[in-house]
């Protein structure tokens, strides 16, 4: 019987954990499926397009041929003129003329493009060329960006809970250390007083008669009989309520053991979890300096790892690239040699964007508070002073 009850409790605990994690897993799984479907779509549309050699491309090749022939005839005479002409000509060139679409729009390349679309980073290194691809990119971003923000909000609740609990635990530990330093060398009279009160009080859960209550309650002895009986009656009612409460809980447990009722209760709790998205993020109140420190450490960790496969980057360049990515600026001035490896950083990007979003929100709240103080200060100073007229 004991093992059966333990198994039932274990199953119930597993179900509770599953339904508690279900909303978070649902959002992340939806985003992953959305990214994979987009990668398949764009790799098929943009990767299989035909490259048409336009008149501009032929004109470019003709001018390049003429410049190279003139350079071979006059090697050093017109070097400055050659530099200006070749610079002007290369500015007219388009990357699409020299790259095979199938080499860019592979599955992983398309997946990297989809991640840059719904995260609003948009490096600009990979972009759709066909008209169909451009229309589908707009439609893909229209649904992908809200889904990404929903995932960010959901992850923000988890991150805000972790940060707030960690910060509160640190403050409690700090206060305990300060209190122990202040109380060292002094006797705690308040603790002795509380102990004496605890010994003199009566536990309501124990079965006591009226005489024991009168003997053990010094506050009741000194009162008139009318008030004394009223207090004894209230104590007896409290004692009876305390004894009858476990029986009610047992009846509720029997009532909730019905599978249909428990399933309905579980579904209502899951729906309530969906409604609570973003609530913890609004309650977060930690110092902005702490968030800036977390961002610096977070980006530094990635900047130390990224040059391992991106050999052209050093720590400073990798730090700059991660900051531009997490803030969704995405200039595109730094190109990745292995974007396939960077896809393994997808979770890192999502969490990092969430940390930056929380920092921006805290900074926004601080700015709003500062504006309120400035406006109230200016309003108080501009208030006309009351003139006191002589009587």
Automatic annotation (TrEMBL):
<feature type="transmembrane region" description="Helical">
    <location>
        <begin position="104"/>
        <end position="123"/>
    </location>
</feature>
<feature type="transmembrane region" description="Helical">
    <location>
        <begin position="135"/>
        <end position="153"/>
    </location>
</feature>
<dbReference type="InterPro" id="IPR013099">
    <property type="entry name" value="K_chnl_dom"/>
</dbReference>
<keyword id="KW-0630">Potassium</keyword>
<dbReference type="GO" id="GO:0030322">
    <property type="term" value="P:stabilization of membrane potential"/>
</dbReference>
<feature type="transmembrane region" description="Helical">
    <location>
        <begin position="21"/>
        <end position="45"/>
    </location>
</feature>
<dbReference type="InterPro" id="IPR003280">
    <property type="entry name" value="2pore_dom_K_chnl"/>
</dbReference>
<dbReference type="GO" id="GO:0005886">
    <property type="term" value="C:plasma membrane"/>
</dbReference>
<keyword id="KW-0813">Transport</keyword>
<feature type="domain" description="Potassium channel">
    <location>
        <begin position="103"/>
        <end position="159"/>
    </location>
</feature>
<keyword id="KW-0406">Ion transport</keyword>
<feature type="transmembrane region" description="Helical">
    <location>
        <begin position="286"/>
        <end position="306"/>
    </location>
</feature>
<protein>
    <submittedName>
        <fullName>KCNKI protein</fullName>
    </submittedName>
</protein>
<dbReference type="GO" id="GO:0015271">
    <property type="term" value="F:outward rectifier potassium channel activity"/>
</dbReference>
<keyword id="KW-1133">Transmembrane helix</keyword>
<keyword id="KW-0812">Transmembrane</keyword>
<feature type="transmembrane region" description="Helical">
    <location>
        <begin position="318"/>
        <end position="336"/>
    </location>
</feature>
<comment type="similarity">
    <text>Belongs to the two pore domain potassium channel (TC 1.A.1.8) family.</text>
</comment>
<dbReference type="GO" id="GO:0022841">
    <property type="term" value="F:potassium ion leak channel activity"/>
</dbReference>
<feature type="domain" description="Potassium channel">
    <location>
        <begin position="294"/>
        <end position="364"/>
    </location>
</feature>
<feature type="transmembrane region" description="Helical">
    <location>
        <begin position="342"/>
        <end position="363"/>
    </location>
</feature>
<keyword id="KW-0407">Ion channel</keyword>
<keyword id="KW-0472">Membrane</keyword>
<dbReference type="Pfam" id="PF07885">
    <property type="entry name" value="Ion_trans_2"/>
</dbReference>
